[in-house]
Design goal:
This protein is mainly alpha-helical and 169 residues long. 76% of the residues lie in helices and 0% in strands.
Length: 169
């Protein structure tokens, strides 16, 4: 019984070795590697496209939520004060408009650069300026919401605001 099992294992090991030697020849292996590289590049491009789409949708969602909140506040404020406060119904600029205005002062820097994970010196000032401008122009947005728009933590936005406006809280 042991001899037959041992013989079966030896045949199995020989078959595995032969397959490995044949795979090492490179003929089928290089074609498979090329196919995998191609699939990887397609998936990477698809992932980047989806990440850009998600960022756009998150910014649009934040903008829409802020507008809805502002409208709700205006409606509630209108009931309480009979519409005396006209500043509440004022149309707020979109995030895209605010960022575009700021980036006009920084040629060569795009929105993708601002929200990227890169920490290049040339990107820090425009990124901080954009965060500060959104914070000041859109008081209806919370720090976590602004952080999500810029793909940063809300404490980063808070640090930028404190550093640039001189808050000592």
């Amino acid at each position: 019984m042991e001899n037959s099992q041992s013989a079966r294992q030896q045949r199995h090991y020989r078959a595995v070795r032969e397959r490995l030697v044949r795979a090492g020849d490179g003929g089928g292996r290089s074609a498979a590697m090329a196919e995998l590289r191609f699939e990887l590049s397609e998936l990477t491009a698809d992932n980047a496209t989806k990440a850009r789409r998600i960022a756009t949708l998150e910014a649009d969602l934040a903008d829409a939520e802020a507008r809805l909140l502002a409208q709700a506040k205006a409606l509630l404020g209108g009931r309480q004060s009979d519409g005396v406060d006209s500043d509440r119904t004022e149309e707020r600029p979109s995030i895209d408009t605010i960022v575009a205005d700021v980036l006009a002062d920084f040629p060569g820097v795009s929105w993708e650069d601002v929200i990227s994970v890169r920490r290049e010196r040339r990107l820090v000032k425009p990124r901080h300026a954009c965060m500060r401008a959104v914070y000041e122009s859109r008081p209806d947005l919370s720090l976590p919401r602004i952080g999500r728009i810029f793909r940063r933590d809300h404490t980063t936005v808070l640090a930028v605001v404190k550093a640039t406006t001189g808050h000592s809280d």
